[in-house]
Each structure stands twice: as C-alpha cells, then as structure tokens.
TrEMBL record:
Protein name listed in UniProt: Restriction system protein
GO molecular function, one term: DNA binding
PANTHER family the record matches: MRR RESTRICTION SYSTEM PROTEIN (PTHR30015), TYPE IV METHYL-DIRECTED RESTRICTION ENZYME ECOKMRR (PTHR30015:SF7)
Organism: Gemmobacter caeni
Gene3D superfamilies: 3.40.1350.10
Length: 357
C-alpha cells in the first residue's frame, strides 16, 4: 500500500507550502473524514487521496448546487431506503459536493494503525473508479500518530458518519500546529496582547489555562489530576484503573495508609459529560457502604439540576468540583503538583500571577 507523504495526490507541493492554509483570503473550514469499513474507501484514501462514501449515487453532480438537487439524486438512487436515511446521506453528500471548498483542511482517519492524515481539498469534483462523486486531497504532511492528538479533539473521531465538519474554537490553529510540529498544541485561547482592562486580561489568561486543562485531562486523566490535587493537600490517594469502576474512581484519606479521617470516595466525569442524578446516587451509595466520611464528585461540565439539588442536600458529606473549582485548585496548588501533571498543561501561569499580584 502506498505510503502517505506530504505533497502527494492532487498537487506535488509540500513542506512549507502546506502551511499556507487559506484560499483567496477566505478562512478554510475543517472537516473530519472516516472511511467506511465496507468497501475500498480506505485504499482510495491512501493510494489516491480520494475522499468519498457510499451514497448510491453514480452521476455527475458538478451542476447540482442546491441541497434539494442532491436530495433528489440520493432519493432516485436509493428508492427503497427510509426517508430518514435518505436525508442523512444527502446531507453528507451535499457537504462533500458543495460545502467543501478548495483549500479546506481534512483530518482523515487512516486504515490500519491508529494514525491520522491531514490533507487539503483540491479544486473541483473528482470521481472514484466506481463512479462515486469524490474530492481529491493534497497531503500536507506525513501521518500523525493518534496519541499526538489531544483527547478533546479525539472526540470528533467517534462520529458514526464519514464526513463531519469540525467547528470547535481554535481548530484551524490546532491543525496548523499538527501540520507544522506533528503535535496538537491544544486550545491555547487568546493571548495577552493589545490594550485591554486588567479584568479582561485576567479573564482571557484564566480562560486559556482552563481550556487547556479541559482538553488535556479527559477520561482517566481527569481522575489522575484529581488524585494529584488531593495529594497536594496532604491526603493519601488511590486512583482506580481505567474501565468500569462501580461508581468509585478513587479513594483517599489521611495518614500514610490513607486510613485516617477525612476518608473520601470520589467519582470523576470529564469533558462534556454532565453528572446526573444516577451518577450521584451511585456515589452516595458507595459513601454509605464503604464507611467513608465524605464523597467527592468531580464533573468538569457540572451537574444536572436534579443532581445539584441532591448534592446540596448532602451538607458536609459531599463536595462538588467543577471546572472553575479545578482551575482554582490547580492555580493554588501547582507548585506542589508533580512535573508530569504540570508539563501536560504546558501553559505559562506566571503572567496570570503577575496580573493578580
């Protein structure tokens, strides 16, 4: 199988030219493409730089400029499909034919090893060997391993549809970083530049650090950060292993063995997960069953209204850490956190501390 190299496919140019990811002053859009498993779509991507999918259409769509025209073409090609399926396929095909523009960037899941390719959409429509409408890509760099992409951006790769637009803030800068360095720089947020009030500068720098923490510490990593924050406050902590946890992600307590009060059980939710009443109820059950003194629920995106009401009724026996509380603790305790935690954030906080002094 052909190896992807920068500059292959539609255009032989690569290297520094690949970083010029704007077209005629128009900001490019960013897409994610996942080849369908049924068929040879992975091979077409790897060998020909073609992105396409099975929509049943084998026709020239170069003059189908309106979504309604695409819908008609998909309907005609799939007379026995359900209406909902027809609409889903026509939305995908319209994105491929009309919404993607030359110069747009496409993050592609590559078949085989867990890697991504980044390509730039070429001019005009293409066609695969079976007559499916397609778009051609110029690869902008060699493949990137999956672990070079931060967890928050990896969430878009779970899409069940082959073509998805990625609209999260700062995505273009992040892909530029991947193209240039082979590493996701993460959501850096606004920099402290230009005239602004002290309050605006503090808010901007704080948001930058918060966004970085939220992007880096997802899944089990958020439990590791929680454990580090508790250890920095003098507790002995055991963080569970990734996978099913029965409602407890960590336990903590005082003393060298973690057996002295306060003894805690903790549950951790990261990313966009909002902890609901079912999660909280399971944690409360573990609190009562374990003989712990208190429970800690860590939810980066907060609690549902029902769960928050239940948490407030627990009084001194339960505490909630959301994004703002985790950020506050990180800033207060960072000098006591291990280098492995601080190096993952990679955001300079001294500027913020100077503003706060």
């Amino acid at each position: 199988m052909m190896q992807i190299r920068a500059g292959t496919a539609a255009d032989p140019a690569g290297g520094d030219a690949a970083l010029e990811v704007s077209t005629r002053g128009v900001t490019p859009r960013v897409w994610y493409f996942r080849p369908q498993r049924d068929g040879d779509f992975g091979r077409l991507l790897m060998e020909g730089g073609l992105i396409t999918a099975e929509f049943g259409v084998r026709a020239d769509l170069s003059e189908h400029y309106e979504p309604g025209q695409i819908l008609d073409a998909v309907t005609e090609a799939n007379p026995h499909e359900a209406r909902s399926r027809i609409r889903s396929m026509s939305t995908q095909l319209n994105a491929l034919v009309n919404e993607m523009q030359p110069g747009d960037l496409v993050l592609c899941a590559l078949p085989g090893a867990p890697r991504f390719g980044i390509g730039q959409v070429g001019p005009g429509l293409a066609e695969d060997p079976d007559g499916r409408p397609a778009r051609s890509l110029r690869w902008l760099r060699d493949p990137i391993p999956r672990d070079a992409v931060l967890s928050d951006l990896l969430t878009v790769t779970g899409s069940y549809v082959p073509i998805t637009e990625v609209t999260r803030p700062g995505i273009l800068d992040r892909l530029r970083g991947l193209i240039r360095d082979g590493r996701d720089p993460g959501p850096t947020g606004p920099l402290l530049t230009g005239p602004a009030s002290l309050e605006a500068l503090i808010a901007a720098e704080t948001a930058r650090i918060r966004d970085r923490i939220g992007a880096v510490f997802t899944g089990h990593a958020m439990a590791e950060l929680t454990g580090a924050l508790l250890r920095a406050q003098g507790l002995t902590v055991q963080v569970g292993t990734p996978g099913p946890d029965g409602g407890v992600d960590l336990i903590a307590g005082g003393g060298p063995l973690g057996l002295a009060p306060p003894r805690l059980v903790g549950q951790v939710k990261s990313g966009l997960q909002v902890a609901g009443d079912e999660t909280l109820q399971a944690l409360i059950g573990n609190l009562h069953g374990s003989g712990a003194d208190a429970a800690l629920i860590v939810s980066w995106s907060g609690l549902t209204r029902q769960a928050r009401a239940r948490a407030q009724g627990m009084g001194f026996r339960l505490r909630v850490w959301d994004a703002e509380e985790i950020l506050r603790l990180y800033l207060d305790l960072q000098d006591r956190l291990p280098d492995g935690i601080r190096s993952r954030v990679r955001v300079e906080t001294r500027a913020l501390h100077r503003l706060l002094d």
